[in-house]
Each structure stands twice: as C-alpha cells, then as structure tokens.
Amino acid sequence: NRGCQHCRRARRPGGDSRRATTAAARTRSAVTPGVVTLPNALTVLRGVLIGVGCAFLLTGPQTAPAIWCLALAGVTDFLDGYLARRLQQSTALGALLDPAVDRIGGVAVPISLAIAGIVPWWLVAILLARDVVVFAGLLVTRAQSTWRQHTTFIGKAATFALFVGLPMLALGSLEVSVAAVAQVLGWGITGCGAILYWWSALDYLRRMRQVAVADGVGIGSP
Questions:
Q1: Distances from the Cα of 155 to the Cαs of 19, 29, 33, 127, in angstroms?
Q2: How far apart are CA 192 and CA 202, in angstroms?
Q3: Which residues are within 8 A (CB) of 17 and not within 5 positions of it... i.e. 6 or more apart?
Q4: Which is higher by pLDDT, 91 or 68?
Q5: 39 contacts 94 by C-beta, under 8 angstroms
Q6: What per-residue confidence (pLDDT) applies to 103?
Q7: How far apart are CA 50 and CA 77, in angstroms?
Q8: Would 70 disulfide with which of 53, 141, 177, 210, CB 3.0-4.6 Å?
C-alpha cells in the first residue's frame, strides 16, 4: 500500500512545479542579511573592471590593458561565488548584483571587442540572441512577478568560459609569440562558453515555466 501511495504521489500533476517553488524557497532562506561583504565587493570590482576594459577597447583600442582588466574580471567571477559559499556571506544584494553584472558584461564585452575588430559580429549576435530569448521567455510565461533569476552552475560556467575565451581572442590579435596558440584556445573556450550560455538559457526557460505553472500564470492564463 505504501508503494502504491508513493506511485500516486509521484504521478500527481504539478510535482515538478512544486519542487521548483520549494527549491526557490530554500534558496531564499539561505540568504543572509548584509550589504558590505567581500563577495559583494568583488562583484562590484568585476563591474568596474568590465567598464574599464571596455573603455580601453573603445579608445584606441588599447588591447593589452583591456586584456588584463577582463582577465581579472573573470577571476572575480569565480571568487565571489566561491567566497559567498565558503564564508556563508550570500546576501539578497549579491543575488541581484551578481547576475546583473554578468549580463552587463555579456553584452558590453562582446560588443566592445567587435567594435575593436577583434571578434566577428556574428559571434556577438549569437551571444546577444540568448539574452533576447530569456527575456522573451519572461514575457511569454508572464512570470515576472514571482520569477527571480538565480545564478546556476551552468550559467556561471558559461560566464567564466567567456571571460577566459574572449580575452584570449584579444591576446591572439596582438603581435606576440603566443598569438596563434591564444587564437586556437580562445576560439575553443569561447565556443564552449557560447554552448553553455545557451544551455543555461534553456534551463532558465524550464525553471520559468515551472514557476509560472505553480503560480497559475502560465501560457494561456487570463
């Protein structure tokens, strides 16, 4: 009888939606109060480094200092999440700030590199189309009122790969001895980052749909 009851519970509709909502609630309960923390400071630093790096690319371009800025931004992208978990300093501000800085970097860096003539515009189109798809998913599922974009492992891996691959492509555009190697590695890592970037988009769309169904605001709801 217990086995049958378990089977019936497993077949109940909306199970995935309830699990998604419960997981989101657990994530919110793990967030601690506070604003001035080391992970948040690193996230802000990443935003500054992205802005300075893009400025170097657009004024000259000054590729070498831009590479340093973007490479350091990639390091902070790993460190802020790691330290937030390690030091138990996950905050509500960090949960909003981290994906926002990632999105700004995901738009500004490829465009700046394309304007500087380092990467082709079709690569920019592939990366930006992903953000358009995610935004369209928000509109279609009408989940804006309850959905909050939480950083996922796939999304962070994609961002980190792009922050490694794109600076390597910039290094490959310079007249240095490792330019050829940097070009090959840069395209390989950037390609993997683009695949993960789209994979994370599909994962976000799945989560959006689950939350929308759980809240009764899915597609076709009045």
A1: 20, 22, 24, 13
A2: 16
A3: 210, 211, 213, 214
A4: 68
A5: yes
A6: 86
A7: 11
A8: 53
Tokens of 122: 């079709």
Q: Are 110 and 119 in contact (CB under 8 A)?
A: yes
Write the pLDDT tens digit of every residue in 29-78: 445 556 788 889 999 999 999 999 999 999 877 889 999 999 999 899 88
Are the C-beta atoms of 190 and 123 separated by less than 8 Å? Answer: yes
What are the CA-CA distances from residue 130 to residues 10, 17, 120, 137 (Å)? 34, 24, 17, 11
In the chain, where does DSSP find H-type helix?
A: 2-11, 15-29, 38-58, 63-86, 92-115, 121-141, 153-172, 179-214
Q: Is the pLDDT of residue 195 over 70?
A: yes
Q: Which two tokens stand for residue 38?
A: 């080391």
DSSP 31: P
Residue closest to 139 by CA, chosen among 214, 215, 205, 210: 205
Structure tokens at 43: 């996230």
User: Cα(3)–Cα(212) distance, rounded to whole angstroms?
Assistant: 31
Q: Which two tokens stand for residue 171?
A: 């290094």
20, 214 contact by CB (below 8 A)? yes
Q: Any residues with CB less than 8 A from the CB of 58 and at least 6 apart, and which?
A: 112, 115, 116
Residue 33 has a pLDDT of 57
Q: How many CB atoms lie within 10 A of CB 26?
A: 9
